[in-house]
């Protein structure tokens, strides 16, 4: 971390670990909380207007109208708040520290027979042993309203067993709700060693499963009559299969496409294990099979990058108007097909819902910053808000066997709640509180950025004093914009350090620019997205992957003439 | 032919003569009278009659050709005579076994190497040469590959024991035009990086162009005033005839956008250019026609350039180009299977080009593009006797090519392939018992 | 009677649950019908009902609901079969071990591959989707029907086709394992050892299984040998349940595998590529081994330098059941043209040439009772051409699989992809023509080594 960055962003960076640690060192004043006069969405379709929720010792103590605030309860402030059951992530790596990326092929003497760890065959491992509640992925998901997740280890073919964790639960013991909740697998080969391809993964699956059955049977016989019998060999890999064989542990398969969906369904049918499909992006052609086999399904919250329309200049030729061959028609059709493909992915959730298949969501490959937008795109493509809410709450609770304790706002359930200032899926809705295990965390409402006006005539030139609003901390810096409207440049100065701006552009009243920091070999980009209104501006800055923060400012001086 | 007793006898003789029986034999020169043939001249229609070959030239075509008494008469009743096919893009003679790198003389180290001449490395004894010529392909452009400027390609006749003997009078500088396209799915460069790489390469070419002009003017000054110093610069020396337009520049380019930028560059620099490849030529056929730049396209029998293309796009490409008014020749772009050239033309014919245009695309059109239309590419009196006798349409696979003449040499109709056939059709000894 | 009804219900239920092959009915009228097994019929009809051929002859009646196709002036032949292909696969080589008998391309079928449609547009209806040639004993292969349009990989499988496995001799396994990983085989001697070792171990495995089966009932302490999927597969080869399809070039290595198979009692053997098969045609014929060859590929690597385009003709004349294959997403589109080359190089008759891409590959894949000729009772897999398919000017017009039209030149359009990138429209890849996948999945090796 460079000194400059440290100085400039020190308040921000100091604050980040605090966000994750929640309340800090001091014990909480009380373990009771009260939400009043709220719209309590107990479960999709069941709404309690002007309701209240009492939380005590981690559980929902009461839900109803005309509840009185208990004397020892802290009242969560807010007008007409919306209360939902905390969201449940059906499959992700959240809270599991990402292993260092290894490049190149591992050094193995015999690539056809590598050690299990290199082959990616480690079903004996458990995500529960790896959870780190302070991992920054936890905070990102928490801020969206997720309070519990089914997490699995990183890896290849058989990375290990999954665990249900509470996001924001303190330490490993507080975070893990249920260890060894699933047996995780994916069609992910090991680079350069066996099994490298999906072909070999399928073969290895069959072999391991049948060997495990054999070994399980042998063990049972040996334990009842060992004398004269060859002893059983200790094999933790095969033993990890036993609960799967007994039907006590479902096999969660992360799938990349509809072909994988069919492959996993086929393998489950052939071997006879209990399957759950996770992170699926396209399942429509397999819906009949999924329905018939009652396979739990978790759709990916990742969607293809949204494109309104392909930029004109990227057509297949620069001179569309002068061509005799019908390539413009072809180009148009290509763009139509691309757009249709984009739509197809957006419509998956609605199609699954329409088919009457209950499903949850998985964030395995989704970027946190896209998740709310992606939910919005799915709703726009036909998923109802109730269906979306079900897929975030009741459905995953049922599919993961958690319905008794999670998924709805009901008395006796774990107090995992998300509280918003508007309906969750409404535009401009902010998450105000996320309550996990009865402990609330407060979020500042983001100011609504003014919609920019592309036809506005404003000038950005001059000296501005701007403040960046990091929760609990605010930094002030000086922005200097020079040049003409077509050719702007500038600097930003904070804590006595001046940095050059790049890509300074004013379009209508929208002012955008970036500033680069290089920190420990890592490049950090501050992307400003501001709206100028007379001599004031507001908007936001995105700080690398740390998050987006509000910015406000006013012009302190203008050049003499413009 | 192959089943004739004489041939079997010859085969026997060769095998008994020793294990090194795989020699194709000698060509014979002299006067040949091809009697009673259906002569497909390509440029002057079909003539029923005789064709006379003397001193390497066609000296007579018609119904009353006066042949010298010693002329060897070949009865061509029911047979056809065609001009030898010309392949406008091969690596024949430069590459023996493509995966054995030490037998590959087409691809030299470096990016800009215009001083390399393919003719130097043509191996007259390459095994693929007899394999090619017995199919009726008598003349090929053989080209170096790799880098921005791989060197000069040379047109060779497929007869002779030295490159000089084989040289057929045309050379062209090769250029692989810069592209911002991804090389393949494994190409991880961002779009911007690809564009940067393209711009960088274009700049290199433009710099080379400017430097060559300066070099040429210094050379001209030196010719008048020997005291002017000019240092050895093989690159610019080799580029000089290209820049002054006396040597053609053959630009290999396939992607539609790249073709357009190549056309722009050609116009700006007034280049004496030929486009080669042009797999996506059909997308910009009108622009190519307007630029009046000839095209040597192929292979025709290949997959389309994009997954979304029509399945037959590579087959229809030459026809679309021709219909738009582009001068189109067809090449195989191959080494060991240049013999497939008539089949590439056949596919183009079936998929929209028509038989006559497809036939011209492997005969007179490449001859015209290379400025050799007075010597090659059709059956006319005075032209080089590059031709062959066959028993049907030579683009049809069923047709047997019976006798090939190149520069008037009667070519032995043998190759490794036919000799192995002769030896192994009925193997002796066979299986014991 | 009751019992019969019960059986019937079971049968119907299993049909409903199992992967249903979609079938159709067509009546092709008034074409020149190239039956392959029964000569050429002019102005004749072919009728397909529910996926099966029910009539070949003159003036046949149109079954109810059948699509009528006028083939006047056109040529009707059985769907072309490619005995060596790597289309429709998401993975080709598990190149990590010299023996990978347990892996199977049937697990990685890719129904979206545009090559399936393009092959249909070349009259092909079935293909042998093979494992690559990186390993001496590669993976098991899948015989597929080109049912383009499905999203389910299972739908491509030709149910009931015999199991097959890919073997490979010579340069490819030597390069991948010997040169690449510094493990045996680095030479053709090593390749032979890999086979003999694998089969010998499989025999030991079978013996152990057998002894366990014998002991099991009487000895409560009997323990089954550890299940080994690789050994199970090799044992199935020894039991004659899997046909070997072996990538091969040189005569000496072909003879080597013949010897190995003789020693281990293996009889079902097809050589692939077999460039020097012509040198040992009498030995192949005597063994009963078959050959699937290229029409004219040679000289792209050293082990194919001494090749001849007359290979198919020599093999055919010596009584070896021979086919012409593609091993390429390009060549699979014009196998009719490749077969035509055997008329230039060896003057095969029309029937002989057409057999190379129809009945003979069907025999090699063990599916000749169902496909490969136009006969009553066979599958309704048919290709219709504008001219005689061996003519260079022939253009495929329509291709029918199980009685369903899967390619119709009149319905062809730009962009027949099933799966489209939602993030960007397609641009040209400069190296688009990497067409040979035999060595795909092998790190650091160019894809063009067949």
Automatic annotation (TrEMBL), chain A:
Q: Ranges for the Amidohydrolase-related domain?
A: 354-439
Q: Which Gene3D superfamilies match?
A: Metal-dependent hydrolases, Urease, subunit C, domain 1
Protein keywords:
Signal
Checking InterPro entries in the record gives: Amidohydro-rel (IPR006680), Metal-dep_hydrolase_composite (IPR011059), Metal_Hydrolase (IPR032466), Metallo-dep_Hydrolase (IPR051781)
**Bias category Basic and acidic residues: which stretches?**
304-315
Ranges for the region named Disordered are: 303-331
Regions of biased composition (Low complexity) lie at: 316-331
What GO molecular function terms would the record report? hydrolase activity, acting on carbon-nitrogen (but not peptide) bonds
Q: Pfam families per the record?
A: Amidohydro_1 (PF01979)
Q: What is this protein called?
A: Amidohydrolase family protein
Name the species this protein comes from.
Neolewinella lacunae
TrEMBL record, chain B:
**Signal peptide start-end:** 1-20
The organism sits in which domain of life? Answer: Bacteria
Example GO molecular function: hydrolase activity, acting on carbon-nitrogen (but not peptide) bonds
Pfam families per UniProt:
Amidohydro_1
List the coiled-coil residues: none
Q: Which UniProt keywords apply?
A: Signal
Sequence ranges assigned to domain Amidohydrolase-related in this UniProt record: 350-406
Give the Gene3D superfamilies listed for this entry: Metal-dependent hydrolases, Urease, subunit C, domain 1
Transmembrane residue ranges: none
Under the heading InterPro entries, the entry gives: Amidohydro-rel, Metal-dep_hydrolase_composite, Metal_Hydrolase, Metallo-dep_Hydrolase
Keyword S-adenosyl-L-methionine assigned = no
Against PANTHER family, the record matches this protein to: ALPHA-D-RIBOSE 1-METHYLPHOSPHONATE 5-TRIPHOSPHATE DIPHOSPHATASE
Under which name does UniProt file this protein? Amidohydrolase family protein
| Native source species | Neolewinella lacunae
Automatic annotation (TrEMBL), chain C:
Q: Which UniProt keywords apply?
A: Signal
Q: Which domain of life is it from?
A: Bacteria
Please report the stretch or stretches of sequence annotated as the Amidohydrolase-related domain: 319-393
Write one Gene Ontology MF term: hydrolase activity, acting on carbon-nitrogen (but not peptide) bonds
Where is the signal peptide, in residue numbers? 1-19
Q: Known Gene3D superfamilies for this protein?
A: Metal-dependent hydrolases (3.20.20.140)
Q: Tell me the CDD domains matching this sequence.
A: Met_dep_hydrolase_C
* Protein name per UniProt: Amidohydrolase
Q: Which InterPro entries match?
A: Amidohydro-rel, Metal-dep_hydrolase_composite, Metal_Hydrolase, Metallo-dep_Hydrolase
Q: Which organism is it from?
A: Neolewinella lacunae
């Amino acid at each position: 971390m460079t000194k400059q960055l440290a100085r400039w962003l020190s308040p921000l960076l100091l604050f980040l670990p605090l966000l994750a640690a929640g309340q800090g060192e001091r014990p909480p004043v009380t373990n009771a909380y009260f939400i009043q006069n709220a719209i309590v969405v107990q479960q999709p379709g069941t709404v309690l207007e002007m309701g209240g929720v009492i939380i005590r010792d981690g559980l929902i103590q009461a839900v109803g109208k005309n509840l009185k605030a208990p004397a020892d309860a802290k009242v969560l402030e807010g007008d007409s708040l919306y209360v939902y059951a905390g969201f449940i992530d059906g499959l992700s790596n959240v809270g599991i520290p990402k292993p260092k990326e290894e490049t190149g092929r591992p050094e193995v003497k015999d690539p056809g027979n590598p050690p299990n760890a290199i082959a990616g065959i480690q079903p004996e491992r458990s995500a529960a042993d790896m959870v780190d509640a302070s991992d920054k992925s936890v905070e990102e998901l928490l801020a969206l309203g997720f309070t519990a997740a089914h997490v699995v280890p990183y890896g290849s073919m058989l990375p290990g067993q999954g665990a249900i964790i509470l996001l924001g639960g303190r330490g490993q013991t507080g975070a893990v709700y249920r260890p060894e909740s699933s047996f995780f697998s994916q069609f992910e080969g090991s680079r350069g060693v066996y099994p490298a391809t999906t072909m070999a993964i399928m073969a290895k699956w069959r072999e391991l499963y049948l060997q495990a059955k054999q070994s399980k049977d042998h063990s049972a016989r040996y334990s009842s009559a060992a004398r004269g019998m060859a002893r059983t060999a200790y094999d933790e890999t095969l033993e990890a299969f036993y609960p799967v064989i007994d039907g006590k542990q479902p096999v969660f398969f992360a799938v990349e496409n509809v072909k994988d969906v069919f492959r996993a369904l086929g393998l489950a049918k052939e071997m006879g294990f209990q399957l759950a499909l996770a992170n699926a992006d396209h399942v429509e052609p397999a819906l009949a099979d999924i329905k018939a086999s009652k396979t739990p399904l978790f759709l990916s919250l990742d969607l293809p990058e949204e494109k309104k329309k392909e930029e004109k200049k990227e057509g297949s030729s620069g001179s569309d108007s002068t061509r005799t061959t019908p390539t413009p028609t072809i180009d148009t059709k290509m763009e139509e097909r691309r757009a249709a493909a984009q739509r197809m992915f957006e419509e998956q959730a609605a199609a699954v819902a329409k088919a009457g298949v209950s499903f949850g969501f998985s964030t395995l490959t989704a970027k946190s910053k896209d998740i709310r937008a992606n939910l919005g795109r799915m709703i726009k493509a036909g998923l109802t808000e109730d269906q979306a809410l079900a897929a975030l709450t009741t459905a995953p609770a049922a599919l993961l066997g958690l319905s008794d304790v999670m998924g709805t706002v009901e008395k006796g359930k774990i107090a995992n709640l998300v509280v918003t200032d508007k309906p969750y899926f409404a535009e401009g809705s902010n998450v105000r509180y996320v309550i996990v295990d009865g402990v609330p965390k407060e979020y500042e409402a983001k100011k609504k950025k003014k919609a920019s006006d592309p036809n506005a005539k404003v000038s950005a030139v001059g000296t501005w004093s701007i403040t960046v609003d990091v929760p609990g901390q605010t930094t002030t810096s000086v922005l200097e914009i020079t040049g003409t409207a077509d050719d702007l440049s500038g600097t930003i100065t904070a804590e006595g350090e001046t940095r050059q701006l790049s890509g300074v552009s004013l379009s209508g009243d929208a002012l955008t620019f970036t500033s680069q920091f290089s920190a420990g070999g890592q490049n950090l980009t501050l992307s400003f997205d501001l709206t100028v209104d007379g001599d004031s501006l507001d908007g936001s800055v995105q700080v690398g992957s740390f998050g987006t923060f509000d910015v406000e400012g006013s012009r302190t001086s203008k050049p003499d003439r413009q | 032919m192959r089943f004739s007793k004489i041939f079997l006898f010859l085969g026997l003789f060769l095998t008994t003569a020793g294990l090194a029986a795989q020699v194709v034999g000698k060509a014979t020169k002299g006067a040949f009278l091809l009697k009673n043939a259906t002569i497909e001249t390509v440029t002057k229609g079909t003539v029923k009659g005789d064709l006379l070959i003397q001193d390497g030239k066609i000296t007579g075509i018609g119904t009353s050709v006066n042949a010298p008494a010693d002329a060897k008469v070949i009865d061509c009743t029911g047979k056809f005579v065609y001009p030898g096919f010309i392949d406008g893009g091969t690596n024949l003679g430069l590459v023996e076994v493509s995966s054995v790198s030490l037998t590959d003389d087409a691809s030299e180290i470096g990016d800009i190497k215009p001083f390399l001449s393919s003719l130097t490395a043509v191996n007259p004894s390459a095994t693929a040469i007899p394999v090619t010529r017995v199919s009726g392909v008598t003349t090929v452009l053989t080209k170096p590959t790799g880098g921005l400027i791989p060197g000069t390609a040379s047109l060779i006749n497929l007869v002779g024991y030295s490159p000089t003997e084989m040289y057929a009078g045309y050379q062209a500088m090769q250029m692989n035009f810069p592209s911002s396209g991804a090389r393949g799915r494994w190409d991880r460069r961002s779009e911007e990086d690809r564009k940067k790489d393209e711009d960088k390469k274009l700049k290199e070419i433009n710099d080379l162009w400017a430097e060559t002009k300066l070099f040429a003017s210094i050379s001209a000054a030196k010719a008048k005033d020997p005291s002017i110093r000019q240092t050895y610069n093989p690159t610019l020396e080799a580029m000089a005839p290209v820049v002054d337009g006396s040597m053609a520049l053959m630009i290999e380019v396939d992607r539609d956008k790249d073709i357009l930028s190549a056309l722009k560059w050609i116009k700006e620099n007034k280049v004496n250019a030929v486009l080669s490849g042009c797999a996506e030529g059909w997308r910009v056929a009108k622009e190519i026609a307007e630029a009046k730049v000839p095209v040597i396209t192929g292979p025709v029998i290949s997959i389309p350039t994009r997954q979304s293309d029509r399945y037959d796009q590579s087959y229809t490409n030459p026809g679309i180009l021709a219909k738009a008014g582009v001068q189109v020749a067809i090449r195989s772009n191959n080494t060991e299977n240049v013999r497939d050239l008539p089949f590439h033309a056949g596919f183009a014919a079936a998929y929209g080009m028509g038989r006559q245009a497809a036939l011209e695309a492997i005969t007179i059109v490449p001859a015209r593009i290379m400025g050799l239309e007075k010597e090659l590419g059709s059956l006319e009196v005075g032209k080089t006797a590059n031709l062959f006798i066959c028993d049907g349409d030579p683009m049809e696979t069923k047709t047997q090519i019976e006798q090939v003449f190149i520069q008037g040499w009667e070519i032995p109709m043998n190759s490794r392939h036919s000799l192995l056939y002769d030896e192994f059709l009925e193997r002796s000894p066979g299986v014991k018992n | 009677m009751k019992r019969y009804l019960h059986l019937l219900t079971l049968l119907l239920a299993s049909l409903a649950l199992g992967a249903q092959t979609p079938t159709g009915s067509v009546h092709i009228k008034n074409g020149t019908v190239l039956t392959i097994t029964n000569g050429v019929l002019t102005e004749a009809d072919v009728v397909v009902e529910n996926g099966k051929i029910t009539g070949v002859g003159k003036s046949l009646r149109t079954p109810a609901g059948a699509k009528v196709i006028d083939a006047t002036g056109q040529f009707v032949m059985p769907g072309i079969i490619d005995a060596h292909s790597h289309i429709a696969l998401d993975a080709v080589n598990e190149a990590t071990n010299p023996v990978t008998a347990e892996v199977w391309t049937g697990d990685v079928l890719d129904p979206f591959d545009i090559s399936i449609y393009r092959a249909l547009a070349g009259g092909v209806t079935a293909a042998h989707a093979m494992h690559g040639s990186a390993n001496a004993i590669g993976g098991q292969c899948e015989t597929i029907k080109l049912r383009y349009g499905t999203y389910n990989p299972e739908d491509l499988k030709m149910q009931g086709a015999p199991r097959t496995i890919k073997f490979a001799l010579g340069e490819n396994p030597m390069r991948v394992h010997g040169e690449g990983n510094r493990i045996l085989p680095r030479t053709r001697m090593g390749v032979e050892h890999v086979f003999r070792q694998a089969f010998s171990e499989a025999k030991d495995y079978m013996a152990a299984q057998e002894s366990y089966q014998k002991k099991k009932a009487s000895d409560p302490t009997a323990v089954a040998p550890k299940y080994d999927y690789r050994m199970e597969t090799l044992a199935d080869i020894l039991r004659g349940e899997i046909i070997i399809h072996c990538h091969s070039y040189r005569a000496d290595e072909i003879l080597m595998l013949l010897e190995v198979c003789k020693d281990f009692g293996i009889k079902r053997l097809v050589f692939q590529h077999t460039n020097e098969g012509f040198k040992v045609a009498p030995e192949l014929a005597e063994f009963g081994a078959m050959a699937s060859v290229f029409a004219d590929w040679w000289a792209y690597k050293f082990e194919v330098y001494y090749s001849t385009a007359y290979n198919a003709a020599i093999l055919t004349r010596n009584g070896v059941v021979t086919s012409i294959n593609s091993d390429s997403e390009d060549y699979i589109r014009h196998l009719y043209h490749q077969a035509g080359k055997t008329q230039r190089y060896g003057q095969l008759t029309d029937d002989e040439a057409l057999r190379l891409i129809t009945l003979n590959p069907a025999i090699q894949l063990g599916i000749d009772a169902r496909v490969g000729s136009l006969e009553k009772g066979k599958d309704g897999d048919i290709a219709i051409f504008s001219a005689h398919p061996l003519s260079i000017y022939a253009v495929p017009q329509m291709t029918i699989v199980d009685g369903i039209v899967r390619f119709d030149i009149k319905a062809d359009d730009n962009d027949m992809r099933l799966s489209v990138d939602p993030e960007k429209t397609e641009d040209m890849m400069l190296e688009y023509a990497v067409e040979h996948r035999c060595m795909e999945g092998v790190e650091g090796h160019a894809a063009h080594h067949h």
